[in-house]
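Friendly challenge for the regulars: who can give me the structure tokens for this chain first? No prize, just bragging rights.
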Amino acid sequence: MVTTRNASEQRVVLRNISWQTFETMLADMGEDRTSRMTYDQGMLEIMTPLFPHEYWKCLIERLIFVLGEELNLEILPAGSTTFKRGDLRRGAEPDGSYYICNAVLMRNKTEIDLNTDPAPDLVVEIDLTSSSLDKFHIYASLGVPELWRYDNGLLYIYQLQQGQYIECNSSPMFNQLNLTEIPKFLEESQRIGVMAMTRNFRSWVREQLGIEK
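First reply, four minutes later:
Bragging rights claimed.
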């Protein structure tokens, strides 16, 4: 067992864990837990997020919904839902996940089965410390088309192409907008507050889209 700690999250890695054990742990721990689990063919990582981790996650989600409003996009949040495929023996619970292209299709679902349902259109990961597992490989195998990774003041945007994530400056999901400015607004929230930052971000998005304020 490997344990890592910092001021934003705690991680425990367990090895030689069967898929059946992973499924049992998910069922026994229930949906009310705060920890998030990632499983990759025998390796299980359990991460417990602390305040800084959740702060940045919530702010990024707030900005995602501003983008949806300004672009007139329906967004269905799926949070840290467990996305898994038993045939691949892989599963993950992202920091944030969203159905956008498939929002209407997934609106009334009570369970998600990736053998028949699409993967979320966008996954967000807050990487204040590095995961011990290759989440890129897991999300690629699950078919997630767009991945955002926020890492200590930088936002990286990746698009799935031919089974691999390719870094890009703009977001394919959001009208090809260049969203590398998002960290600037996130940091701004600590100086002027969340609400004022949100208003500034909305004005910036409208400016990029050529919409009058």
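Helices lie at 19-29, 51-70, 103-106, 135-142, 182-192, 194-209. The mean pLDDT is 91. Your move, everyone else.
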